[in-house]
Specification:
single chain, 7-stranded mixed beta sheet, 38% helix, 168 residues, alpha/beta
Length: 168
């Protein structure tokens, strides 16, 4: 099946003490709009060295797209035989990536229990009356964020057209 998929789109969200580091081994089939998630790392307390080691064991030298807010950690990954780069983010990118992500089909391997749990429990922020807002909560979303970083090349392609249609 892998030869049918567009390309790997592995993602990494950094964490340490309060939040887990999350890495997803995933492939996207653009023709069917399906994301296949095959494996995950989801752990608190990982040093950069241990995170690099575990990520390398899982994906080898295939590219992993990371949260770009930690350039020092990305540099460490690259210095430890990983092909890592930061996701492109900008104004409105959180809403854009969640909107794009909600429109794809996601197929999870049974061992990917953390992203499954997050997809089942993640919520949108609510106003004072309990109505859902168009802004995702920033909790219970570490594997989701890792997944979206891995897909950033896809949702970034559509970001400009969404701004034009919905935000102007």
């Amino acid at each position: 099946m892998r030869n049918r998929l567009d390309r790997s789109c592995h993602g990494l969200d950094f964490g340490f003490s309060n939040d887990p580091a999350a890495v997803l081994k995933q492939y996207f089939d653009k023709s069917s709009n399906k994301l296949y998630v095959f494996d995950e790392i989801y752990q608190r307390g990982l040093t950069d060295k241990k995170l690099a080691q575990l990520t390398n064991q899982m994906i080898g030298f295939e590219e992993v797209i990371c949260d770009s807010s930690e350039p020092k950690s990305i540099k460490h990954l690259n210095n430890n035989n990983l092909n890592a780069r930061g996701a492109k983010k900008g104004p409105g990118s959180i809403e854009t990536r969640y909107r794009w992500y909600s429109g794809i089909d996601i197929v999870l391997d049974s061992k990917c229990v953390n992203i499954k749990r997050e997809l089942q429990t993640h919520q949108w922020k609510k106003d004072k009356d309990g109505n859902s807002l168009k802004v995702p909560e920033d909790k219970n979303n570490h594997a989701i964020d890792a997944s979206m970083y891995g897909l950033s090349d896809y949702w970034n392609l559509e970001q400009q057209s969404w701004y034009t249609q919905d935000y102007v």
